[in-house]
Specification:
alpha/beta; 14-stranded mixed beta sheet; 26 helices; 38% helix; LRR_dom_sf
Length: 698
């Protein structure tokens, strides 16, 4: 049997494998590298060869399969449309037209414009014919014949020839009204498809009823984000940008209505002006999304649908939303526009507020959204606390929550601590100036959702210092279940009052891979090395920005490289001296896995070109790392002896030579949680999200 005659199920399975090749469950701490040769890792984790295809490779593969024949096209099309990233304004307009059809207002404008052009053309032709005809008796007939001939020549299909009946040109449904107008209005096609699906379910199992083919590609889209979207460089004035926006609320709402299976959505500050009340309702109320808080207290329990109904019948939009799949991941990083804040305020007051006091305090209602499991609110600084609190508490099944840089207050943490259904794996409250030391300690020690945390960010810097006191920090280390379990993978205690006593209170953390200890000026470098050697030997990435008196560049710039290598790199990342006359015994590996150290720009400048295999890699922004180019994950093993011609070492040295001229996704120890695919603080992102994760200092 040839490939052209294979069943659809086999072709679809091949396309599914090609699509899933870009989805990696293995979390690599290194930037993604493009292999020089087509190789596949034999074990995971592996930074080189990469453990997954790039998104571009997968898309090209699926696009090539679509060109084979009709069978391959039908099998590859759903996976080609499954993951959509909006990058350019014109591509967004093309995407809107492809998924939702042309804008009805624009279509009406085009019709009116065409009509005006036809009338103008007719008047011009009439005047010319009148002049040509003069005052002769046959001027009227000449004028009429001339106008008809010219209109037939220029309008073409608009005025069909008399010899061809109109019934044979186009079907009546596409002539009155036009096909574009029908498509733009998006009739209740979902109602017809649901009726057919219900009929199929009610038939006998041995009866086959083909499902009607829906030509709209929006039903295949499961992921939509604007991470790479920006309008910078289009040479538009401020007035033009304000008057003619690309991502408008009307266009976005029309697109979302055509995506019944959308599972993850990512927004940025470049399009947050389109997130009005209607768009937020379209995102949040999808599927059987609303449930009572008491019913959502047990994970996995069947939720009773309590979608808002009128007294007589359910609104058509709400009925359509009930048939959609519930959203699982929502990233609102950097959304601060007044339109977004007002829309969120209206949504909270309409669905999630039980009572609103005179001072603006909102009592959360019993209505919740259990479908969303991952929520990113980093940098949403414009949303007030009285709106943020009931909004976050409405999501009762969260596993990933990023509240960094928000107006999160102690009331939110206290209410979140009582939730029995929230089981957090990744949690970030970096740079939250309104929190108190007691509220953070109580949440991490007594909070039910905090028991399962494996990725935690309490990051603070010189501008927003963490409110934790040393006493509460010791309590957290000694009593918090997430610290006592020893299963922490990512931990950032930057600007926290970390002392020798705090480090001594830690239990061993064998799976800790990324550790942040920046902005702790009094912490000796020797204590850091002792902690990693005894309690966290598998730490690969360490941040020491403005940490340790030995790294104070203003005191002794020439002493900094010597102190760094003597107190940290040599005892942790250098193999012990080995000598053998026979060569029968293998050299011992370094005592820890440390291979990346983040430092300030002044310290990196003092290091010069680095030492031995250690190189300086700078981000696109203000961050920089001291990286061991001879170390990397290859086929499940961490190698510390990569040869100079190894592709991964060559790539790391190329990044070092770029001197910051790199993409936004280059860096280590992310400061933004990866929400859309669920990798959390250990995940990797590029575009605008990558710049927030690896480029920005704050």
């Amino acid at each position: 049997m040839s490939m052209a005659h294979l069943p659809h199920e086999i072709l679809s399975s091949v396309c599914a494998v090609a699509y899933e090749a870009s989805l990696s469950n293995d979390i690599s701490l290194d930037p993604s590298f493009t292999p020089l040769t087509e190789t596949t890792p034999t074990a995971l984790p592996s930074s080189y060869p990469p453990s997954s295809w790039s998104e571009l490779t997968t898309r090209r593969t699926l696009a090539s399969l679509c060109l084979v024949n009709r069978a391959w096209f039908n099998a590859a099309k759903p996976y080609l449309w499954r993951h959509i990233e909006i990058r350019q304004p014109r591509s967004w307009l093309a995407f809107v037209e492809q998924v939702a059809g042309p804008d009805p207002a624009e279509f009406e404008l085009m019709e009116a414009t065409a009509e005006r052009l036809v009338i103008s053309r007719a008047a011009s032709l009439a005047s010319r014919a009148a002049v040509a005809g003069g005052s002769s008796e046959g001027s009227a007939e000449l004028l009429e014949r001339s106008i008809q001939q010219q209109l037939l020549c220029h309008k073409g299909a608009l005025i069909p020839h008399d010899s061809v009946p109109a019934e044979l040109l186009t079907p009546p449904a596409s002539r009155e009204p036009s096909p574009a107008r029908l498509r733009a209005k998006s009739p209740v096609r979902w109602r017809f498809l649901r009726a057919v699906s219900d009929a199929v379910q009610s038939l006998e199992p041995d009866v086959y009823v083909p499902t009607p083919d829906d030509p709209q590609p929006g039903r295949h889209v499961h992921h939509l984000d604007f991470n790479h979207f920006r309008t910078i460089g289009m040479r538009r004035s401020g007035e033009e940008a304000a008057r003619s926006r690309f991502v408008t609320a009307e266009r976005l709402e029309r697109v979302l209505k055509e995506m019944p299976h959308l599972g993850s959505f990512g927004a940025t500050e470049y399009m947050d002006g389109a997130l009005n009340t209607s768009v937020l309702r379209e995102l949040l109320l999808r599927g059987k999304a609303l449930a009572f808080r008491g019913q959502a207290s047990v994970r996995g329990r069947q939720q009773q649908d309590v979608t808002m109904q009128t007294d007589e019948e359910m609104d058509e939009d709400m009925e359509r939303l009930k048939d959609c799949k519930g959203l699982q991941a929502l990233d609102l990083c950097g959304c601060v526009s007044s339109v977004f804040v007002q829309g969120l305020d209206e949504i909270v007051r309409e669905y999630f507020a039980d009572e609103v006091a005179e001072d603006g305090t909102i009592t959360p209602s019993e209505v919740t959204i259990p479908s969303i499991k991952r929520l990113g609110m980093r940098g949403v600084t414009s949303v007030p606390a009285n709106i943020l609190t009931p909004f976050v508490l409405a999501f009762t099944s969260l596993t990933h929550l990023d509240l960094s840089g928000t107006r999160c207050n102690p009331d939110l943490l206290a209410a979140l601590a009582d939730s029995a259904s929230v089981q957090l794996k990744s949690f970030a409250i970096a740079r939250c100036s309104r929190l108190t030391s007691e509220s953070i300690a109580d949440f991490l020690i007594d909070g039910l959702p905090a028991r399962t945390i494996t990725q935690l960010s309490l990051y603070g810097d010189g501008t927003f210092i963490t409110p934790l006191t040393e006493m509460d920090l010791v309590r957290i280390v000694k009593q918090a279940p997430c610290f006592q379990s020893g299963e922490m993978e990512y931990l950032d205690l930057s600007s926290c009052p970390v002392t020798s006593a705090v480090l001594d209170a830690f239990v061993p953390h064998p799976v800790l891979r990324s550790l942040g200890l920046s902005h702790i000026g009094s912490l000796p470098l020797g204590e850091v090395a002792k902690f990693i050697l005894t309690s966290a030997p598998n730490v690969e990435v360490l941040t020491l920005v403005n940490t340790s008196p030995e790294l104070a560049i203003h005191i002794s710039p020439r002493q900094v490289p010597l102190s760094l290598h003597t107190l940290l790199i040599r005892p942790l990342a250098t193999a012990p001296f080995h000598f053998s006359l026979t060569g029968s015994s293998a050299p011992k590996p370094p005592p820890t896995r440390l291979r990346v150290v983040e430092l300030t720009v002044g310290v990196l400048n003092a290091l010069g070109a680095g030492g031995e295999a250690w190189k300086i890699v700078r981000s696109k922004g203000g961050r920089g790392w001291y990286v061991d180019a001879a170390s990397g994950w290859e086929n499940g093993n961490l190698r510390r002896d990569l040869p100079p011609n190894h592709p991964m070492r060559v790539e790391l040295e190329r990044l070092a030579a770029s001197n910051g001229n790199v993409s936004g996704g280059v860096g280590w120890h992310a400061r933004k949680m990866e929400v859309l695919s669920g990798q959390g603080l250990m995940g990797r992102e590029d575009g605008l999200y990558g710049a927030v994760s690896f480029a920005y200092q704050g």
